[in-house]
């Protein structure tokens, strides 16, 4: 494992785990949820409020930052941490998912992906080496290999070709990381293979042979459904080293997170809490609500009177309803803050339950409150 970066398990309860990732910029308590700061900001939130909500780490996006304002510019301004006033750990994705989503605007080869910017149509080439160079220029504490993320369903032979390409790119990413990274930075490999258990097993074996500081499960949360996702995790997570962090990319809803923790996952990210907050959806212990609904126009109760988060505790549902109906900026800001705090509170409760050996009771309580089964 990279010097200055480490992971220690503190407790397990079945397959569920809790631990701590140590980085030069601070600890990351796991299971951890990373708010998404795509373009150098967690949308509608101040960095200090993100930290106060309980987040130890946030996620930045290589694709968006390379296009605007540019990785070299961010580096010249002191790196992404200084640029956005977030002194704690940052994980950057490789940019691959966004590039692969461009459809006709991109072309995939062994070398990498050539594409045209969705902003101005300018031509770019993203290779494993360039992706790592960008992430190093940004100064990311945890970096991701470039991979191909195919849609599900996909024919098995096509899935295998894609998985093998990602495995070759993983080797190139690691070589570039060894040349360009700074002390304390870490690189994660990404397991691919669509919904084929044997391809996932082969992908994991190839990544372990290459050797990474942590391992991500990619290619899920792309419309395959919760049952398929959980089955893939059950087949994949046990094949990953117990002494390295396990990251499920792009997930997700609270039930997805609880179910993935039950299957051995340590890290998560998703735009859902911030995107939902901007559109009037608040996550609560009993599931999501739409604060714009008329039933909340005269509701004097806050979203969560017991919460430590001011957005959850100090503003009535009636006021939040008014803000959204009036088109006031404060509405999305407060609801985003609430959602981020809710997700961080969920993670804290999960960590405490695993540490106390009562994760099964936590799952039962979660199901009773939400009506969602995760086992």
Q: What number of domains?
A: 2
Q: Count the strands?
A: 16
The chain-level mean pLDDT equals 97
CATH class of the largest domain: Alpha Beta
Percentage of residues assigned to helices: 40-55%
Put simply, the count of helices is 15
Q: Strand arrangement, largest sheet?
A: 4-14-13-12-11-10-6-5
Task: Tell me what the CATH architecture of the largest domain is.
Answer: Alpha-Beta Barrel
Ranges where pLDDT stays below 50 over 5 or more residues in a row are: none
Q: Any idea what the shape is?
A: globular
First-residue to last-residue Cα separation: 32 Å
The rounded Rg comes to 20 Å
Helix/strand class: alpha/beta
Strand content of the residues, in percent? 15-25%
Largest sheet: 8 strands, parallel
Predict the CATH topology of the largest domain: TIM Barrel
Q: For this structure, what is the CATH homologous superfamily of the largest domain?
A: Queuine tRNA-ribosyltransferase-like
Q: Secondary-structure blueprint of this entry?
A:
Layout: E1 6-13, E2 16-23, E3 26-30, E4 32-35, H1 47-52, E5 58-60, H2 62-67, H3 71-76, H4 80-84, E6 90-92, H5 96-100, E7 106-108, E8 113-116, E9 123-126, H6 128-138, E10 142-144, H7 156-180, E11 186-191, H8 197-210, E12 214-217, H9 226-236, E13 246-248, H10 254-261, E14 267-270, H11 272-278, E15 281-284, E16 287-290, H12 310-313, H13 317-326, H14 330-355, H15 359-370
Parallel strand pairs: 4-14, 5-6, 6-10, 10-11, 11-12, 12-13, 13-14
Antiparallel strand pairs: 1-2, 2-3, 7-8, 8-9, 15-16
Helix pairs in contact: 6-7, 7-8, 11-14, 13-14, 14-15
């Amino acid at each position: 494992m990279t010097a200055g970066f480490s992971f220690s398990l503190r407790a397990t309860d079945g397959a569920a785990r809790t631990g701590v990732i140590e980085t030069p910029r601070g600890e990351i308590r796991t299971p951890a949820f990373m708010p998404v700061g795509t373009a150098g900001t967690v949308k509608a939130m101040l960095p200090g409020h993100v930290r106060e909500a309980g987040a130890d780490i946030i996620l930045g996006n290589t694709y968006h930052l390379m296009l605007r304002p540019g990785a070299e510019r961010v580096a010249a301004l002191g790196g992404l941490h200084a640029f956005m006033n977030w002194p704690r750990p940052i994980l950057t994705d490789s940019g691959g998912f966004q590039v692969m989503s461009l459809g006709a605007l991109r072309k995939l080869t062994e070398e990498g992906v050539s594409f045209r910017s969705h902003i101005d149509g300018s031509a770019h080439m993203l290779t494993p080496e360039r992706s790592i160079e960008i992430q190093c220029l940004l100064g990311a504490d945890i970096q991701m290999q470039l991979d191909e993320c195919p849609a599900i369903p996909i024919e098995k032979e096509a899935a295998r070709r894609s998985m093998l390409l990602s495995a070759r790119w993983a080797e190139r990413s690691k070589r570039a990381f060894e040349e360009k990274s700074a002390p304390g930075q870490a690189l994660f490999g990404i397991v691919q293979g669509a919904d084929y258990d044997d391809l996932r097993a082969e992908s994991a074996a190839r990544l372990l042979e290459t050797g990474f500081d942590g391992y991500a499960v990619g290619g899920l949360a792309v419309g395959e459904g919760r049952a398929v996702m959980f089955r893939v995790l059950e087949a994949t997570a046990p094949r990953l080293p117990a002494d390295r962090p396990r990251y499920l990319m792009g997930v997700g809803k609270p039930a997805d997170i609880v179910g993935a923790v039950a299957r051995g996952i340590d890290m998560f990210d998703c735009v859902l809490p911030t995107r939902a907050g901007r559109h009037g959806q608040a996550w609560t212990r009993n599931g999501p609500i739409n604060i714009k609904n008329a039933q909340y126009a005269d509701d004097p109760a806050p979203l969560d009177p017991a919460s430590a988060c001011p957005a959850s505790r100090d503003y009535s549902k009636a006021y939040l309803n008014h803000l959204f109906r009036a088109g006031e900026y404060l509405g999305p800001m407060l609801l985003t803050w609430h959602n981020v705090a809710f997700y961080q509170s969920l993670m804290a409760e999960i960590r405490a339950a695993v540490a106390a050996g009562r994760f099964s009771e936590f799952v039962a309580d979660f199901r009773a409150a939400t009506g969602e089964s995760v086992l």
